[in-house]
Amino acid sequence: MLNRRQFLLTVGAAMGVVVLSDQSPPTLAQPQFSAYPFSLGVASGDPGPDSVVLWTRLAPDPLGSASMPEVSIPVQWEIATDPHMQQTIQRGTAYATPQWGHSVHIVIQNLPPGQWFWYQFQVGQEKSPIGRTRTMPEPGSQPEQLKFAFVSCQHYEQGYFTAYHHLAQEELDIVFHLGDYIYEGDPHPGNPRLHVGPNPVDLETYRLRYALYKSDPQLQAAHAAFPFICIWDDHEVDEDYASNQSQDFTDPAAFRQRRKAAYQAYYEHLPLRPTARSQAGQVQLFRRFQFGQLAEFCCLDNRQYRDDQPCANNGKGGGYVVSACHERLAYNRSMLGKQQEAWLMQGLQNSSAHWHVIAQQQLMAELKFGLETVQGYWTDGWDGYVASRQRVLQYIEQQHLKNLVVIGGDIHSFGVADLKTNFQDPQSPVIGTEFVGTSISSDGLPYVLYALSKKINPHIKFLDSRYRGYVVCHVTHEIWYTHLRIVNSVEHADSTIQTLASFQVNNGQPGAFKI
Q1: What angle do CA 415, 420, 421 make, to 5 degrees?
Q2: What is the pLDDT of residue 280?
Q3: How many CB atoms lie within 10 A of CB 71?
Q4: Where are the domains of the chain?
Q5: How far apart (Å, rounded) are the C-alpha atoms in residues 225 and 88?
Q6: What pLDDT sits at residue 24?
Q7: What is the pLDDT of residue 212?
């Protein structure tokens, strides 16, 4: 049996030099690896006008049984103004620690606004791939245009991340990931790909699941091409969970421990600022981003603070399509929690941006399922939290907020809808526009469910669950263009891309029309 000091010296002989000091854990000064340590790629995110986060995680054997030693490892980084890394403007050293899975989150500051940069990491003699990122324009500036994409729902087993191959080749400023970055659950043979490891329930198994997803070369290419802004949905923890409640009524104390582990693994694998670290099992994830005066994004957390889904009276929690459920109408029910709801309203009131964007996980507009005589509502979405949605939309109407656009995901379907304070009244004024993106690879609901509901949802202009892909938005002062991009298959990694449909929103005129 080796004691701690003997173990570290043994690792040091194999990998480099261990510096033993008063700090904990010790630092491995000259690391050497048996395999490439940057197997999970590089990423950047959460850009500001003068800063951006650079990310990587050291993982020479990401899916194997061999783990990294319990030592800190120095990681050199540099950022340049050219793709060949010849014109370096900043460089430094960060430490990949075992506490955070040997991930690094480097907040690069004092950068010029509205510019592209290239970055790279090095550990020992090994260099990472080169990534590209950019800063936001100055807050008071007037950019001529903004091009961004949003994505969600990437189930590894249900298909290849083909859409990311094409996304990486788009001309974009930024990408928003709106949730379901991973999927929990045991492996299911017979799918195009297979999960590795058991259903994640603790930090070790969540790390393994993220490592599998992050190993995908097409996902890595997209992260290396653009900065990402990420928010989560349910599958990063457990399907249809609500705050401290699992859908299977797991003991809340046990579920809180699982959620805490899932939240940490989420932070460890995404380019988030250190403010997103878990503190006592809670994470501050809702935040704002401003693209000059052209657009401001309020990014929401629809999971951590919500009330439990209504009308779960059949012995199982989570979402259901219900017809007679008065609980979903209760005034005190909230999707966002009081603090986040107030934060959203205050931000919308104080914003001076031309376009006001709410980036969140789900379809906000009402969606009735069924026929004219028999109708139901999905309780895990905003239709299960009617009063919460009503407070937000009524506030927007009262503030006479112009150019409101909501973007979402979750339903594995493209959607385009008019937002209004009374979805039951066709004459109710339109106060905003909603675009929902389909999944990257996750299976969609049967199209017939949506097709049958078109007649009873006149405010929904477009709804199609048959395709996988992403959404690209091209925004100017006068026009907002939205393009629904689809791949022909997720069963093959080399599928082609095309545009399913395009929509336009004009300045000062809420509501989208097809072009």
Answers
A1: 135
A2: 87
A3: 25
A4: 4-134, 146-194+222-232+286-514
A5: 18
A6: 65
A7: 98
Q: Are strands 432-436 and 414-419 parallel, antiparallel or unpaired?
A: antiparallel
As given in the structure block, the two tokens for residue 59 are: 């993982």
Among the CATH numbers 2.60.120.20, 2.60.40.380, 3.40.50.2000, 3.40.1390.10, which is that of 4-134? Answer: 2.60.40.380
Q: What are the CB-based long-range contacts (under 8 Å, 24+) for 242-246?
A: 242/303, 242/306, 242/307, 242/308, 242/309, 242/317, 243/303, 243/304, 243/305, 243/306, 243/307, 243/308, 245/308, 245/317, 246/317
The reported pLDDT for the residue numbered 315 is: 67
CATH 3.60.21.70 fits 146-194+222-232+286-514, yes or no: yes
Structure confidence at residue 197 (pLDDT): 95
Q: What residue type is assigned to position 506 of the chain?
A: N
Q: Is the peptide bond before 25 cis (omega within 30 degrees of 0)?
A: yes
Amino acid of residue 101? G
**Among 315, 400, 322, 334, which Cα is nearest to 367's?**
322
**Number of C-alpha atoms within 13 angstroms, CB side, residue 4?**
6
Cβ atoms within 10 Å of 315's Cβ, excluding its own: 7
CB-count burial class (<10 Å; 0-12, 13-18, 19+) for 400: exposed
For residue 241, give the DSSP letter. Answer: -
In degrees, rounded to 5, the angle at the alpha carbon of residue 55 between the alpha carbons of residues 436 and 111 is: 90
pLDDT value, residue 34:
86
Report the alpha-carbon distance of residue 194 to residue 192 in Å, rounded.
7
Burial class of residue 126 (count of CB atoms within 10 Å of its CB; 0-12, 13-18, 19+): middle
Mean pLDDT by 10 residues, the chain (515 residues): 37 42 71 93 98 98 84 97 98 97 98 98 97 97 98 98 98 98 96 96 97 98 98 98 92 95 98 94 96 98 96 80 93 97 97 98 96 86 98 97 98 98 95 98 93 91 97 98 97 94 98 97
- Which residue stretches of 73-167 are H helix? 162-167
> What's the pLDDT at 1?
36
Which SS3 state, helix, strand or coil, does residue 70 take? coil
Cα–Cα dist 494/459, whole Å: 36
